[in-house]
Amino acid sequence: MVYYFSGTGNAAWVAGRLAALLEEPTQDILSLMSDPAVTPIVDLEGAKRLVLVFPVHAWGPAEYMRRFLRRALFEGYEGQQVAAVCVCGDDCGRTDVLVRRLLARKGVTLSACYSVQMPNNYILLPGFDVDGKVLEKEKLARSEEAVRHVAEALAGHGSSTYTAGSFPGLKSAMVYPLFRLSLRGHNCFRVTDRCVSCGLCARVCPTNIIEIGEDRRPHWDEHGCVQCLACIHRCPVRAIEYGTISIKKGRYHHPSL
User: For the chain, where are the alpha helices, taking DSSP H only?
Assistant: First the structure.
């Protein structure tokens, strides 16, 4: 089984390709997390393996996947293969260690952790932007082979890599906690006059903090954003900005969306 979370489509594409290569079903965790009063169930009864696919945010697991792993109940686990596939723009830091700890609290052992490099999309801080079009195309061109190597490793027919990058412990121990702390702050998303009132941003928001008002424009709650960036990158007319910091920056979502 391949369980995944995706904001801009990179992890969704990786999960879909892995599932096809391994002949496994996929499960978008959004449907399991829709009701905060209901405990998400991961039923491993009779399953050969569990593969978790998610984006890396600030050298740690995406906050939405982290919340899923903290809430989920793993049933039928009897030592099956459990692997994590980190979808990153460049490197992952010690995301593998963080996920291993989250699973261990549930009595589940992480068997292996892999990484797949995809185009960058984080644009909410100074110095961060999407990749240029040439690099974006190069990463997308390499992604099929990278996913195939992961599938072969999961099937026991080869090995794949996990890219920790430079100073991985420092990044995950210092930057990632600061990123998570920033999620508690004020949400700065806003809409411009380009908005065509399609409502896509509200539909793709995993935490349901976007409401379409009487003016047919999206309005964001001040708190609750996990910075998956689905709204800002998937807006078809580039009508969403994050304060002023995103105005001159690029937008990206996976071509399959």
Answer: 10-22, 63-71, 95-104, 133-154, 168-170, 176-182, 200-204, 230-234
In angstroms, rounded to a whole number, what is the distance separating the alpha carbons of residues 123 and 242? Answer: 9
The answer for residues whose C-beta is within 8 angstroms of residue 174's C-beta and 6 or more apart is none
- Which residues have CB under 8 Å from 5's CB, separation 6+? 11, 28, 29, 30, 53, 54, 55, 62, 64, 65, 68, 206, 228
DSSP state of 247: T
Which amino acid belongs to residue 249? K
Q: What does the block give as tokens for 54?
A: 């998610």
CA distance 111 to 123: 33
Assessment of whether the complete model's pTM goes beyond 0.90 = yes
pLDDT (tens digit, 9 = 90+) per residue, 143-192? 999 999 999 999 998 888 999 999 999 999 999 999 999 999 899 999 99
